[in-house]
Amino acid sequence: MIAKSHLSPAALAGLIGRRALQSLLYVVDLTVFVLYAMRSWGGRRGLFNRASYHAVIAQMIFTGIDALLSVTLLGLAVGAGITAQLILLFQVVGSEADVINVLTKVVALELAPLLTAIIVIGRTGSAIAVDLGNMKLHREVEGLTLLGIDVQDFFISPRLVGVALSQLILAVYFAVIAVVSGVFFSALLASFGYLKYLLAIPLAFDPVALVGFVVKNLMFGLLIGGSACYHGLRVGISPTEVPQETQRAIVNSLVLIFLLDGLMAVTLL
Amino acid sequence: MSDEVLLRAEGLVPAGLDAPPALDLVLSGGLVVLAGPGRERLSAWLHTLAGLAPPAAGNLLLLGRPLSGTGAHRWQQLRRRVGYVSPAVPLLSIMSGLRNVMLPAQYHRLAPEREVERRARTLLGEIAYDADHDALPAHMSELQRRHLLIARALILEPRVLLLEQPLDGLDLPAAERLREYLVDRVRPRVELLLVAANDALLAHRADAVLFVSRQSVRLFDSWAALLADQAADVQRYLEMERRPCAALEPN
Known about the structure:
The structure holds 2 protein chains of 2 kinds.
Chain A: H1 9-42, H2 50-63, H3 68-93, H4 96-137, H5 140-145, H6 151-189, H7 197-203, H8 207-233, H9 241-268
Helix pairs in contact in A: 1-6, 1-8, 2-6, 3-4, 3-6, 4-6, 4-7, 4-8, 4-9, 6-8, 8-9
Chain B: E1 7-13, E2 23-27, E3 30-35, H1 39-49, E4 57-62, E5 65-66, H2 72-81, E6 82-85, H3 97-107, H4 113-125, H5 142-154, E7 160-164, H6 172-186, E8 192-196, H7 200-204, E9 208-212, E10 217-220, H8 223-228, H9 232-241
Parallel strand pairs in B: 3-8, 3-9, 6-7, 7-8
Antiparallel strand pairs in B: 1-2, 1-4, 4-5, 9-10
Helix pairs in contact in B: 3-4, 3-5, 5-6
């Protein structure tokens, strides 16, 4: 026997409204959290506090350097699977300018930040959320406040800065690998004449688009790090909250990254 | 002991306890052991005396200053000068023992990094065991972790240090070593060492004993004075704690 649903249109509208409001409040909450952490970073203690400095470097090593192999492999895969195919396709249906346009705008400025962000979310976002969640659970964070250490200053802002800088550097690295390897693959598959794009592409970037690329990646990094820290610190007294908050951090980061990307694409068009 | 009042309580009543007695207390230094029946009661009193929990009533002055209206910056400064250590609030698991000890001094920029490391190694050198200070806390024994927790607080050179149940859960040899460390090494480094512990051997060596029970809270000049007290709550407590221990017998 199938149970009847008693959800009236008004109740459905109310449910959707509540969920929309919750999502909006979450975004506001997260934004305030990130801004507050960055204010603490830019404040009295600043970049050159040794304890925070070590944390930034450690975060950059984990997020940036340790992720190089994954980013390289994904970049090569995108080069072979997407860039090379786009070159071959646009050589047939478009002009040389179209090929350069699609490689700079689509592969370098759109795909690279998004795919890099997905790697950073999977590696770093989850690690930060688990890390902070466990430290919160075991009261290690509380131990630092008893020593007069500001949690925002010591735990949050170094991670945000480290992830943001790493996201930017990794996205640049990814874009280079994806474009260069794609040109090489297309040259191997079709004609060595396609190697000419290697010289033409760097000169084809619009300075405004490059600024947008930098801003977008920094915002992606702040969002990924912010969401991970926010959810990590929401862990209370139960160990079951650690995986729950980690999952929320990952899913929310992914959704927000795509929303932000769409928003920026519309704004910069 | 100096003449400066380090901790003053005026009609202080901790929150979260069922009708506790009010405390009027003036402490200028030395080793004071907070003892009495009920771990939670001791913790509530110690938290309140450390300024970590707002009292239900009364006033607390730490280092001559009231705690009411303490801002974030003053809170940080206060926590530098008034340390609080509890085994329930552990070391940072992601840092080595040495880094854990160095961290507060680095954060508060007490000295250049080399000097901080030198001070940390000096503190660790006073701990009477051969431990790998580059190991993570997870690979250390409980005694080592407790030593390091105290060393981490000491690197800030606090004037007042409050310890919550430092000997709790340790086996007898480990408890003995930590007790010696507290008396011989920690006590000379701080002006006031307030330890919540139902440990007769430590209380025996204390300058004063602050006894807290459901009915009363009183400061005794010594452990012997507490033993000689005929109040019913004191006698009940002593009876409860009595075990083969010479320190429990009056002189």
